[in-house]
Amino acid sequence: MDQLLQTIIGLSPLILVFVFFWFFLIRPQKKQQEQRQKMLNELKKGDKIITIGGIYGTITEINDNKITIRIADKVEVKAEKYAVDKVL
């Protein structure tokens, strides 16, 4: 019985560190990834966006994971959906 208690007391700092990491690092990161995936899935033609590279534009076409972005009159570029940073 004393051996079990000593083992539990010995492992408690490790357990506390894991709980800390879960609530302050892992859980918020998963939530952020889910929000980003939702944003990418809801992209549609006509959305004004900013890419990760800082390019502002309007989506003119969406094909699977590729999008076409109009950045100026008669100027369009193709990019991966994952290059979208935010929707304006």
UniProtKB/TrEMBL annotation:
A Gene Ontology cellular-component term: plasma membrane
Pfam families (alphabetical): YajC
Keywords from the UniProt entry: Cell membrane, Membrane, Protein transport, Translocation, Transmembrane, Transmembrane helix, Transport
InterPro entries: Preprotein_translocase_YajC
GO biological process: protein transport
Transport found in the keyword field: yes
Membrane-spanning segments: 6-26
Subcellular location: Cell membrane
Record membrane topology: Single-pass membrane protein
Origin: domain of life: Bacteria
NCBIfam families: yajC
Family: Belongs to the YajC family.
Record protein name field: Preprotein translocase subunit YajC
Organism: Anaerobranca californiensis DSM 14826
